[in-house]
Structures are given as C-alpha cells and as structure tokens.
Write a structure and sequence with these properties.
The structure is a single chain. The chain is α+β, with helices and mostly antiparallel strands. The chain has one domain (about 35-220). The chain contains seven helices and four strands; from the N terminus they run ααααββαββαα.
C-alpha cells in the first residue's frame, strides 16, 4: 500500500532518475487527484505489494478501492491513457477497436450464453500485487446489472458471474477470486467488464484463455520519452 509522498521532491519527480527530470510537471500529471498524487509521490521501494491473502480479503469484504498500482506504474498508466485520449479520442475507443477488436457491441444472446460475447484479456495496468498473482479482465458485450442505489452488482448478476467464473477457471486454477468494480471506480464505463485474480496459474492455461494476449504495460516501453 502507498505511504505519504516524499517531502523533499514534487510528486512528479519521484521515481524518475535525476538526469531524466522534466523541467515542469508533465501534462498527463497536472490534473491528478490528491490520491494519485500521494501514490505517484511515493518511492517504489516504500510501496507494500499486496500478498495473495490480502487480495483475497480485499475482495471478500468488497473494498476494491484498496487496490492501487505501483507508483511508477500509475505514472506510466496516466501517461499512456493521456496518449490514448489524444490519439483515439477516448479510452473506450481504444479498448473496443484495438484491444477487443469488436466490430459490433450487440450481444448475440443472454449473459454468458455465447462465447462470442465475451473476451478475456490481461489487465493492461495491474495493481501492486504479488508477481505470482495474474490479473485478468473479462469483457462482455452484455450488461451485468447493478443496483441503481448502491452501484454494486445485484444478487442475480453476482450469481451469473460466479457461475461463469467457476465453470471457466475452477477446473484449471486452485486459487482465484473475482470482483466487479463499483461504478465510482471504473476507468472504462462504456464497456462492461469484471476482474479475475488467479494465483500461480499455469502459463499454457493463460495463453489459451487469453488467446495469447500481452498486456499493454509490456508493450508500452518503460524508457519511452514523456510527452509534455
């Protein structure tokens, strides 16, 4: 979990080698929330990575707001999404056209009835978790109903997801957990999705279930020059 930001440096210089310091705060960090400033302003080595037991507990008590990215990864995430908005107009356009490659968002049938209405990919920018934990996102063309008052999944929707997760992952992975973000926490609102965490899954199963997917964090070079 993040600690207080480093007091001796502006948050936007933390975790950046001195010879790469920008002269001013980059555009992609200028509208950060106080929460993100606190995380980005924390040294990576002072960040406590979540264990599998902690991940399971966060999911169990439905406090998914406790999931955070490693400070340097959150910085890269904000840089990447800033770039996406400039190039594609919105994060949603990029997700649908480049990641999902769905020409139509119209589902073929009821929730989880057709495989064509579902795609499982890596979380492009996973949280600060034990490296043995693999974070996947299940994207769907169909809606998964939320309670309008609370923003949380309805009991019926939770049951549908649970049945799908058990059928898809339980035969292949011993330890796993799933959650659906609260509406207030979703970074992509227009495309339905939920998250699945797998503990020590086999590589061949991951390759098959994701159809050989590679997370964007692996593609977006760590030494890429920061845009201003």
């Amino acid at each position: 979990m993040p600690h207080e930001e480093e007091p001796s440096l502006p948050f936007w210089l933390v975790n950046i080698p001195r010879d790469q310091w920008p002269s001013e705060c980059p555009d992609f960090l200028r509208e950060c929330s106080d929460k993100d400033r606190g995380i980005i302003g924390t040294l990576d080595e002072r960040y406590s990575v979540l264990t599998w037991e902690e991940v399971r507990e966060i999911v169990r008590i439905d406090r998914v707001d406790k999931f955070h990215r490693l400070p340097s990864e959150l910085r890269r995430y904000r840089q990447f999404t800033h770039h996406l908005v400039q190039e594609y107009g919105s994060i949603m356009n990029f997700i649908v056209n480049e990641r999902l490659k769905w020409e139509s968002m119209e589902p073929m049938g009821r929730p989880f009835e057709y495989e064509e209405d579902i795609k499982i990919l890596y979380n492009d920018w996973p949280y600060g978790i034990d490296p043995d934990i693999v974070h996947l996102v299940v994207w769907t063309k169909f809606e998964l109903e939320d309670d309008q008052a609370t923003g949380l999944s309805t009991p019926e929707s939770r049951q549908e997801i649970e049945e799908y997760v058990q059928k898809t992952f339980a035969p292949h992975v011993k330890d796993f957990a799933w959650f659906k973000n609260w509406k207030s926490l979703k970074s992509v609102h227009a495309v339905e999705h939920f998250h699945v965490m797998l503990y020590k899954p086999e590589a061949e199963f991951l390759r098959r279930i994701t159809n050989g997917d590679v997370a964007m964090t692996e593609k977006f070079g760590t030494h890429k020059r920061e845009a201003r």
